[in-house]
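Figure-free illustration: sequence to structure, shown twice.
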Amino acid sequence: MAHAVSTPAEAHGGHCAGHGGGHHDEHHDQESMKMFGFWLFLITDVILFGTLFATFVVLRLNTDGGPTGAELLEMNGIIISTFILLTSSFTSGIAVLEMNKGNKRGLIFWLAITALLGAAFIFLEVTEFMHLVHEGANIGTSAYWSAFYVLVGTHGLHVSVGLVWMIALMLQLGRRGITPVTKRKVGIISLYWHFLDVVWIFVFTIVYLMGVM
């Protein structure tokens, strides 16, 4: 009976193939763990914002005789800010579509548009805070304004972190292009941005619409 004999080259090739497959599986597992870690982060953020919303609702009438939201909040600027942030969610979705097409330039372009819209949102929010402070409503004026600044400011801080994150990702995409790692990062920043939009809808409804009614 004839026996098949493996040549050294075949044995080496089989070893390399096994090693390559193991390396690929290990990389896939690392990416999955990083994605799982991001979802855990989002869950903790949901708990954080849930606590801040509950605190605001409890303290919304405690103005200590000072100015109320109905007196000072200017809805025209808030509506513009809301439109800007919702538009940025749309542009971040277009960026993901361009990434799935393999279009690096289109991906970076739409991420840049998203970042510009996010920066405009932050600018308007800072302008609003400066106006409120000028009108005598700072974070120490009353429990209502303390809860207002902490809730709205925490959301603004998250948007600012997202902006820095997005700019760093654009630089990385410019150097490395679209890879499995950068695809995962783009997917995460897009989810994060959509999450901030959902939170802002609650802020707009509970803080601003209820505040002026």
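We now fold a second protein in the same way, so the two outputs can be compared directly.
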Amino acid sequence: MFAIPLGDGADGADGAELRPLEPWQAEEFLAHMDRGRDFIGRYVGLPDITADLDSARAWLQVYADKAAADTGRLYGIRLEGRLVGGVLLRAFDAAAGTCEVGCWLEPDAAGRGLVTRAVRAVVDWAVEVRGIHRVEWLVAPENTPSVNVAKRLGMSREGLQRESDPYRGVRQDTEIWSVLAPEWRAARAARGTC
């Protein structure tokens, strides 16, 4: 299995990496979800649909099937080998040149820049390897850490879908953020990571 190091800037000393997350890892995934269920579930429905081993395995299989069909991807964020979060290409349409990226993270791993680094690696792949032109990021406006990731990645806020997401019985607003391939490449060049 491959791993992509997610260096922490100057020296990469925190041991963070990105690896595929697959159905055979359902027990580890469920244990991870149990550690962060309340924290993750504040804005993301993932804890609700992966409540036991069977549902966790089924959800991981959905993304294995998406990867096989080239319509999505799922990666685990690991810190010193331990699964602490994930990044996914929830929707991926290479022919249209569009995708939507999303994430989640355990509370103990928050505040280290892991999501920003992981999403940057996935977007780099989508844009540079797969030719994606438009990457979207959908977020609840109250989810300040996720909004801040979009900003750090150079995404532009395009608008607000009012009460578009029924979540746990309440209709929530959804902000739409995006970055286009030329913008992404210009930001990479400015960072000196071409």
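Summary for the second example: The helical segments are 26-40, 46-49, 53-69, 114-129, 144-152, 181-191.
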